[in-house]
């Protein structure tokens, strides 16, 4: 089990540090889906594997062992992880699960606040909401019922073609549900901080995804690149938490990608990213199979309730056994072992009389 857990850790590191490099060379839509899938697989395994290790020791507690038909002494002998490691795994699972719940609650509250704040007010075509605010800002609120929010301070500084680019970019965010992709990777990072490099990689890929969608709709990649650069210089922020905007991400890299030809599919890189996710899942499956083997070996072969307390809870005193000796073959009567009958020599002789 120790070797399997070590292989799992190597797979997690490969996903955390190798997946962002591979994702930058993929089309942004494929990169987003694969990066989030890889992060989700590692985050799930990083909670399941320590949970299984911790349960190997929790199953020896009297309140737990009465539920399952296994022996505490057998579990103690078959568990390869020391008590300190099991306690650390249990603390890790509790800590990271609470962290995931806290991040989910905070992000969902922010999403609801953004939607409620921008739900009122007249909307123009394409769910566009223009705010009478001098600070330049442009973002989209999360779907469903998402809206494109642009301030008058930005709207007046853009030309009509650039406005079309902004609307196409934010419409792509709404149509593809980019807010939920970002929320998913944030939850994965909360489950395992080792996945922190994937959060900016996914944020960049969703912006690149919206850029490519806008370029296909407008038909001019240079116009989209110029608009992205201008919007980034004017806004300098992506808007409130829970929203995505045209000025987000690494803008120089986005502009350079728009000035280059459209990305082409790369099946080998897709297979490599899928293999990293599969490696993490296989390591977790190996730990689960070995854990089942330990519990199978520790199961009592007697019917439920027939095991002695010493056997179930691993006490040192063994139950007394009453030994009853059965008669062996030598004690059975038979012709060969019957007592000797007195022969003629053994019979008493009559006393002789003399005349």
From TrEMBL:
Q: Which residues cross the membrane?
A: 34-58, 268-287
Where in the sequence does UniProt note compositional bias of the Low complexity kind?
Answer: 321-355
Question: Which terms are listed as keywords in the entry?
Answer: Hydrolase, Membrane, Metal-binding, Metalloprotease, Protease, Transmembrane, Transmembrane helix, Zinc
Q: How would you classify this enzyme at the top EC level?
A: hydrolase
- Cofactor(s) recorded in Swiss-Prot or TrEMBL: Zn(2+)
The molecular function GO annotations come to: metallopeptidase activity
* Binding note for cofactor: Binds 1 zinc ion per subunit.
Q: Does the keyword Heme apply?
A: no
Cite the Peptidase M48 domain residue spans from the record.
116-188
* Renumbered residue ranges of the record's region Disordered: 305-355
The domain of life for this entry's organism is Bacteria
Which PANTHER family does the record associate with it?
A: POSSIBLE SENSOR-TRANSDUCER PROTEIN BLAR, SLR0241 PROTEIN
Record-stated family: Belongs to the peptidase M48 family.
Q: What is this protein called?
A: M48 family metalloprotease
UniProt organism field: Plantactinospora siamensis
